[in-house]
TrEMBL record:
<protein>
    <recommendedName>
        <fullName>B box-type domain-containing protein</fullName>
    </recommendedName>
</protein>
<dbReference type="InterPro" id="IPR000315">
    <property type="entry name" value="Znf_B-box"/>
</dbReference>
<dbReference type="GO" id="GO:0008270">
    <property type="term" value="F:zinc ion binding"/>
</dbReference>
<dbReference type="GO" id="GO:0061630">
    <property type="term" value="F:ubiquitin protein ligase activity"/>
</dbReference>
<keyword id="KW-0862">Zinc</keyword>
<dbReference type="InterPro" id="IPR047153">
    <property type="entry name" value="TRIM45/56/19-like"/>
</dbReference>
<feature type="domain" description="B box-type">
    <location>
        <begin position="13"/>
        <end position="54"/>
    </location>
</feature>
<keyword id="KW-0863">Zinc-finger</keyword>
<keyword id="KW-0479">Metal-binding</keyword>
Length: 407
């Protein structure tokens, strides 16, 4: 009804002129220029109609702007209400789609005092409750996020606390074994150093005896040599015996320092695969929301009939020409313009046929090269047909009588 820039008077447009509209009639669902608006107010049929400026019209909800008081199919004003389909109808709708519907009512009776009815009040209250429920849920989820963050911080503290305890414990064990290593090493080196001092002393003593022996053999008399060498022999024998005693003892055993790590400690590297487990436990929510109404008025909540309430009835037969082979009609689809598309899948006669809303044969849309079992509506004037043997789908433009492509 409205253009992107200006709104034009519908009545003037019908007369072939383009006059900018200034008002919109809520009853007639038309834009009116200043002159047409004056006549509209003077007319007995429309003088009580409510109007508003085009500026206010564009401030209305989009739902109101898109709604029309005229039938989408027949361009006639809604006058009847069908309780079975829960929809308004025009006069022509009754003959086309609502022949079997019962308890049809004048739309004016349904709409009488509708704005002030309890159902409207209940709907308004229901919207308030729904909005409040959403706010409650949002607050609840925000609180849960805050609690989750606190739980994360607490978890990090626990992990770091355990890590600190483990570090302190391992540091203590490490220091203990280092102290023990130092003690054993000190004990070993101390004994070795004492033995080294003794050996150096014995070596020095033997060196002195060697010097004495050289001088004695050169300058001493036989008696002096005899006595001196006997003393040197005794000292040398003691030194040799000292060596034997050292050899027979454990003084020269290779003493090696070995560090053996506790098997329990080493098992940590093998057996411990993780620091711990992180799990998300679920429990019933504690949020309190208001219950919604289940008894809204019939015209506010669509009534969907149960299967036992649906009664099939013959709408109209399709008149097939005598010379047309129609033994294997596998599918029939009603297109948006209320025409009928029939698929015949006979081995020799494979085609799509189009019939009018009255069931009169119009034409063969396309002949098919392969047997088909089904057809479905895609959009606009396009349908899709299965080609079973070829394992393909043919996209057909019904208006152009042409296979657009095969998939």
């Amino acid at each position: 009804m409205a253009t992107s820039n200006k709104d034009f008077c519908h009545l003037c447009c019908d007369d072939g002129t383009s006059t900018e509209a200034v008002t919109w009639c809520t009853e007639c669902d038309v834009f009116l220029c200043a002159d047409c608006g004056k006549h509209h107010k003077k007319s007995r049929l429309s003088r009580d109609h409510k109007t508003m400026s085009t500026e206010d019209y564009h401030k209305l909800p989009k739902l109101m702007q898109e709604f029309s008081v005229n039938c989408h199919y027949h361009r006639k004003k809604f006058e009847i209400y069908c309780p079975f389909h829960d929809c308004p109808c025009c006069i022509q709708c009754i003959t086309d789609k609502h022949k079997k519907c019962q308890e049809m009512k004048p739309l004016s009776d349904i709409l009488k005092q509708f704005k002030s009815s309890a159902s409207v009040h209940h709907l308004e209250k229901e919207m308030d409750n729904v909005k409040e429920n959403f706010k409650t849920m949002i607050k609840y989820l925000i609180d849960r996020l805050s609690i989750s963050n606190d739980q994360k911080i607490k978890g990090l503290y626990e992990i770091q606390s355990v890590r600190s305890q483990i570090d302190a414990f391992l540091n203590k064990l490490e220091q203990n074994i280092i102290d023990d290593l130092e003690f054993q090493h000190s004990k070993l080196t101390s004994k070795t150093n004492i033995l080294l001092i003794q050996l150096h002393q014995q070596t020095e003593k033997i060196s002195q005896l060697q010097n004495q022996f050289s001088k004695i053999t050169q300058y001493a008399t036989e008696l002096q040599m005899y006595v001196s060498l006997r003393e040197i022999e005794k000292t040398t024998s003691k030194a040799a015996q000292y060596i034997e005693d050292l050899k027979n003892g454990d003084n020269f055993d290779e003493k090696c320092l070995e560090v053996t790590i506790s098997s329990e400690l080493q098992s940590i590297l093998k057996d411990v695969k993780s620091f711990g487990d992180i799990k998300t436990k679920s429990r019933p929510y504690t949020i309190q929301v208001k219950a919604g109404r289940k008894d809204q008025a019939q015209f506010l909540v669509p009534i969907i009939p149960a299967i036992e309430q649906i009664k099939p009835a013959m709408q109209r037969p399709l008149t097939i020409p005598v010379n047309m082979n129609y033994e294997y009609m596998f599918a029939c689809r009603i297109l948006p313009d209320n025409t009928y598309l029939v698929l015949n899948g006979d081995y020799y006669y494979k085609y799509l046929a189009l019939f009018s809303n009255d069931g009169i044969f119009l034409r063969v849309v396309v002949n098919l090269d392969s047997s088909s079992l089904d057809v479905c509506f895609v959009r606009n004037k396009t349908v899709a047909v299965t080609l079973g043997i070829d394992n393909q789908i043919a996209v057909v433009n019904v208006e152009r009588n042409k296979i657009v492509k095969k998939i």
